[in-house]
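New to this. Please check both lines:
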Amino acid sequence: MFSLRKETDYAIQFLKLLTKNSRTATSLNEVSEKTGLSFLFLQKIARKLRLAGIIKAELGVEGGYRLKIPAKKITLKKVISVIEGGCLLWSCCEKGECKRLEKCAINKKVRKINSKILKIFEETKLSDL
């Protein structure tokens, strides 16, 4: 069965919470309390999202995290790619990945399915969730 890791699910929940608190920075403690997610796991997620330029950190007493770009510009594909390290259902869909590509009986269909799913992920924005 195809499924995204819990880390991706938690990242989306974290980002969604940041959209609701857009006027103030939100601390990871606050996110942990509101969502029940592990503080340490949230640190790992926040680091990936920050390095990807999706969120920004603010230091100080009133510090925490904010979205760096508007929620309507953050695609599900972007979040999945950052957390999962890519966004492919089949690794063979990446150019040059499969050594049996020319003999593969399902290559064209698999690529078409992958393309449709990626399109859905690209069209779905954080603000849509």
Summary: The helical segments are 6-20, 28-35, 39-51, 76-84, 107-123.
